[in-house]
Specification:
It is a single chain. The chain has 103 residues and is mostly helical. The protein has a domain of 68 residues. Helices cover 40% and strands 10% of the residues. It has four helices and four strands; from the N terminus they run ββββαααα. Helix 1 packs across helix 2 and helix 1 runs parallel beside helix 4. The radius of gyration is 14 Å and the shape is globular. The protein starts with a strand and ends in a 10-residue tail after the last helix. The relative contact order is 0.19. The C terminus is likely disordered.
Length: 103
Amino acid sequence: MATTFIIPDGRHQPAPPRWHGLQQPNPFPKSIFDNVAFGMRINGLVKDHSVLVERVEQALRHAALWDVVKDRLQKSAMMLSAGTAASVHRPRSRRPARGPAHG
């Protein structure tokens, strides 16, 4: 049985194919902002919208994309080049850091 995942509108979609051991860029048909925020939302990590906006900016800065996409956050991620889409996908797929560990 093929692996599937649920996209934001609730439909099941097959897992993207592997490309030389790396996942191909596969942005959701949503805005750039929504693609980056997806992991935070689905994992319930951020409830407050202002915190979500801040975390999305942090993720894009960490991926060195903030200056590239900051004026296009509400545009479709499907319009991004393959390289930029791959970079947007990386912050979406990782859980954000929760701050310094307390030991």
